[in-house]
Amino acid sequence: MIGEFALALFAAFYYLPWIFKGIRDYLYEAPYYKKLPGPKGLSFIGSAFEVAVGEDTTAPLKFWLKEADKAREQGHDIFTVTAMGRHIAFPLSGESVKFICESNEEILKGKDYEFLRPWVGSGLMLSIGKKWKDRRRALTHVFHFTMLEGYTMTFNKHARVFVDILSKQSGTVVDMEIHLKRLSLDSALNTTMGMDFGIQHNPKHPYLASVDIFTNYAQRYNNEPHMWINWIWYLVYSREYNDVLKKLNDFSIEVLAKRMESVRKGEVDLEAKYKPLIDIFIALCNKGECTYDEVHYELNASIFGAHDTTSSTLTWIFWCLATQPQHQQRIYDEMTEIFGDSDRDCTLEDLQEMDFTERFMKESMRVFPPIPTVGRELMSDFQMGKYLLPKGSEIFIAPHIIHHNPDVYPEPWKFDPDRFLPDNVIERNPYDFIPFSAGPRNCLGQKFAMHEMKIIMSHAVRNFVFTTEHDILDQECKVEVMCKPSLGCHLKVEKRK
Ligand code: HEM
Fold first, then answer.
1. Distance in Å, CA 484 to ligand 1 centroid
2. Given the CA of residue 369, which atom of ligand 1 is nearest to it?
3. Residue nearest (by alpha carbon) to ligand 1 atom 20
4. Which of 367, 399, 150 is nearest to 275 (CA)?
5. From which residue to which does the signal peptide run (predicted)?
6. Which of 25-39, 43-57, 235-249, 384-398 comes out lowest in average pLDDT?
7. d(CA 236, CA 232)
8. For residue 353, how many other CB atoms are within 10 A of its CB?
């Protein structure tokens, strides 16, 4: 008891400057927010329990869409909320979100991202200013066409393992979410670390368990708004949270040490045409452009950025596939045109031919965007169209809101891949479709992800038919860090003859 009291006292003192800053920021921001559209609620706490996930993980997205509709009816292009002292603005259309996406100055990530910092460090994902610019420039070529060619081999390899595993379950109902998660973790680890960890064959791999536990903590953080107050989080969860962080960090430190040893022995060629991310970072270190200590954080960031995002997106894509047999057949026909009845690997050229498949995937990401929000914390007062937002407040770029804007997408819940026909795309503001965010700080792995997902689709649809008795909208979107289907994704998988 005395120990806990002492710990609480220590935490309170430790976080005192943070508490003062919170109060000062709140007092500065509140007068601006009084004048902006959106639910007012209690002061300070505001709509925290609607914005946060809480017990019903489908509630926040419903709340956002409801508030978005209300604000649009009143002729506004944003709505705002207060939540545990935080002030947050949600742009409602491509027109208004463009201001923040295009800004080269306002690129500081939102307050929620602090949760990730002990895992992903202060590199590309969370830095700003010169450090971010240099790191972004150094890594942009990783996702260049030539490098993607190399990753294509890796994607094909893991997609084949996925097909083998599903083949053994043909005729049964399969939990696709689990299999897609293992598949995308295999790909992310292989392209990042340069090693095949075989997670699909070894689902008890400790790294997978640690990633799951970490995601679970992120989920608790989302669920419980009082956890946004750092010292409460520290008191309740710090021990277990630090424990899992240590495991995740030890893993990448160990892999990095082994790889550097291989480089020293001349077993790895840092000049190779195709190389995993780890080699690119080791080369940067050798040139003095980053420290070895930073590398394992960048590797963690890449795995984090690449795996849960891709697997959640794919889960929705497979859901859309199984619930719409007519589109599934059309994708199969497109694959047959490209591959005939061959089981060969996909090449980069094949991917360019997958017109309908791409439109279908984009429509899946429009209706069910995998990332609920991307936050920005304003470093200066910011004019977003006709709205002046105060320094220190946040903007949530929410694809879910932008993608369901009925003024841009009539019948927004209707699934129609033709919305992505070139003539229709040209009619829209480019910021009306932002699953990868947009602007200078958009997703660096966008092409990489699209290639990977198309390759997986191509192997899956050539080999299987996916069905379910559900309708597409039987699912709701729940927020579990990513947006996930509330019913999971249990599909009947049958091998094609
Ligand atoms: C379908 C899968 C993916 C989706 C939906 C997605 C989406 C996003 C989004 C919304 C952001 C935030 C951008 C912002 O702050 O404005 C982001 C950032 C990022 N993503 Fe992705 N991502 C995906 C896959 C990947 C993959 C496969 C990689 C790497 C191989 C990757 C690497 C990154 C990086 C490095 C950033 C940080 C960029 C920066 O801050 O400059 N992503 N992603």
1. 17
2. 5
3. 443
4. 150
5. none
6. 43-57
7. 6
8. 15
Task: Select from 101, 140, 309 the residue to mutate for testing ligand 1; criterion: most ligand atoms less than 8 Å from CB.
Answer: 309
- Boundaries of every domain in the chain: 2-495
Look at phi and psi of residue 298 and say left if phi exceeds 0, alpha if psi is from -120 to 50, else beta.
alpha
> In the numeric block, which tokens belong to residue 483?
């947006």
In DSSP terms, 477 is beta-bridged to 485
Alpha carbon 97 to chain centroid distance?
Answer: 18
Instruction: Work out the angle between the directed axes of helices 446-463 and 292-323 (0-180°, nearest 10).
Output: 40
Please measure the distance between the N-terminal and C-terminal CA atoms of the chain and give it in whole angstroms. Answer: 67
Rounded Cα–Cα distance for residues 473 and 470 (Å): 8
pTM: 0.93
pLDDT score, position 236: 81
In 52-144, alpha helices (H): 59-73, 94-102, 117-120, 129-140
Ligand 1 center to 62 CA (angstroms)? 24
Confidence of residue 10 (pLDDT cuts 50, 70, 90): low
> Could you read off the pLDDT of 254-268 as tens digits, one per residue?
999 999 999 999 999
* Residue 263, CA distances (Å) to 61, 251, 278, 280 in order: 48, 19, 11, 12
* Cβ-proximal residues to 495 (8 Å cutoff; 6+ apart), any chain: 167, 170, 171, 463, 464
Largest Cα–Cα separation, the chain: 73
pLDDT number for residue 19: 66
Q: Token pair for residue 71? A: 């604000």
Lowest mean per-residue pLDDT among 116-120, 396-400, 487-491 = 116-120
pLDDT tens digit string along 436-487?
999 999 999 999 999 999 999 999 999 999 999 999 999 999 888 889 999 9
The answer to whether the CB of 377 falls within 8 A of the CB of 14 is: no
C-alpha distances out from residue 350 to 77, 224, 334, 335, Å:
41, 46, 11, 9
Task: Give the integer Cα–Cα distance in Å for 261 and 219.
Answer: 37
Give the three-state DSSP class for 172: strand
Query: What is the residue whose two structure tokens read 């710090």?
Result: 238
The reply to whether ligand 1 has any atom less than 6 angstroms from the CB of 373 is no
Taking only the tens place, the pLDDT of each residue in 79-135 is: 999 888 889 999 999 999 999 999 999 999 988 888 888 888 888 999 999 989 988
Mean pLDDT on 374-382: 96
Ligand 1, residues 104, 309, 443: which to mutate, most atoms within 8 A of Cβ?
443
Residue nearest atom 42 of ligand 1, based on CA coordinates? 445
- The answer on whether 477 is annotated among ligand-binding residues is no
